[in-house]
């Protein structure tokens, strides 16, 4: 087990982590693991954080899977989650699993577009998560049946694809600055098929968009998300919200914070 050591992060990050630490000490936040994927034919690296009482209790925990895993996003994610757990007491303790990228465009895209002309790999990546990663996490750590997934930008497109094609795979979906760039017709077909299927269990989906997004200067993505949100709201057992930030740009920083608050408020 390889421990991530983060030294002197600065007062703001220390406060966000909501832990009692002494200035100048190293902070053990999480650890790295890897899993060999037969589906993807490659080794996939993970960054994992366990609740602070994991080793002193026999409790089980929900798991949040976050895409585009790297150290910076890991620190941000754990900070937000710790604040909501320990300071605001609004969500349960949970295990964090960050999935590092190898070929981001391949894994996140379910179809060809003007900017992506290679063979799409989203279906294989989804199979890896469902049939290899989730079973590995469940067999290695004490987990409940509750699972969440969060993606941003390109990985938000994958999150929306996952939601429309396999909604029962996760309890909640958070898509930050998603959209349908040059593939709106493809996603319209997925959405129409999704609306025709019966949804027996309640699923949550939280979408965000910043009005100052440099990738949406003409407001096309905003219109796509507004239309998409209205459509899925009509489906029984789907609890959804689209939050638009007037003063934020691409992937609003508050997305995970507000998404988790929405999910656990809707579950009460």
Q: How would you sum up this structure, described in words?
A:
With 268 residues, the chain is an alpha/beta fold. The chain has a single domain (2-266), classed as 3-Layer(aba) Sandwich (Rossmann fold). The protein has helices at 11-17, 71-87, 104-108, 122-140, 154-165, 184-196, 220-233, 255-266, and strands at 2-7, 26-37, 42-49, 61-69, 95-100, 143-152, 172-176, 203-210, 238-245. A nine-stranded mixed β-sheet has the order 1-2-3-5-4-6-7-8-9, with helices on both faces. Strand 6, helix 5 (154-165) and strand 7 (172-176) form a beta-alpha-beta unit. Helix 2 (71-87) crosses helix 8 (255-266) and helix 6 (184-196) runs parallel beside helix 7 (220-233). It starts with a strand and ends with a helix. The model is unreliable at 1-22 (pLDDT under 50).
CATH architecture descriptor? 3-Layer(aba) Sandwich
- Radius of gyration, whole Å: 18 Å
Strand order across the biggest sheet?
1-2-3-5-4-6-7-8-9
Annotated CATH homologous superfamily: Alpha/Beta hydrolase fold, catalytic domain
């Amino acid at each position: 087990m390889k421990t991530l050591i983060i030294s002197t992060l600065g007062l703001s990050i220390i406060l966000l982590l909501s832990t009692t630490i002494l200035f100048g000490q190293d902070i053990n936040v999480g650890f790295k693991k890897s899993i060999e994927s037969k589906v993807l034919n490659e080794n996939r690296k993970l960054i994992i954080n366990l609740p602070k009482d994991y080793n002193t209790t026999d409790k089980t925990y929900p798991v949040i899977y976050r895409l585009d895993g790297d150290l910076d996003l890991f620190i941000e994610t754990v900070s937000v989650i710790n604040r909501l757990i320990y300071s605001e007491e609004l969500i349960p303790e949970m295990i964090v699993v960050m999935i590092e990228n190898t070929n981001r465009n391949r894994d996140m895209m379910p179809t060809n577009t003007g900017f992506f002309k290679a063979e799409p790999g989203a279906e294989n990546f989804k199979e890896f998560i469902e049939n290899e990663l989730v079973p590995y996490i469940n067999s290695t750590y004490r987990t409940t049946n509750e699972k969440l997934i969060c993606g941003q930008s390109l990985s938000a497109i994958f999150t929306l694809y996952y939601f429309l094609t396999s909604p029962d795979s996760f309890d909640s979906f958070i898509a930050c600055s998603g959209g349908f760039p040059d593939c709106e017709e493809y996603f319209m077909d997925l959405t129409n098929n999704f609306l025709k299927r019966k949804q027996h269990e309640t699923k949550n989906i939280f979408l965000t968009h910043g009005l100052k997004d440099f990738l949406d200067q003409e407001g096309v993505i905003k219109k796509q998300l507004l239309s998409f949100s209205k459509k899925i709201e009509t489906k029984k057992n789907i609890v959804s919200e689209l939050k638009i930030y007037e003063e934020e740009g691409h992937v609003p920083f508050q997305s995970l914070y507000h998404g988790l608050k929405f999910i656990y408020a809707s579950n009460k």
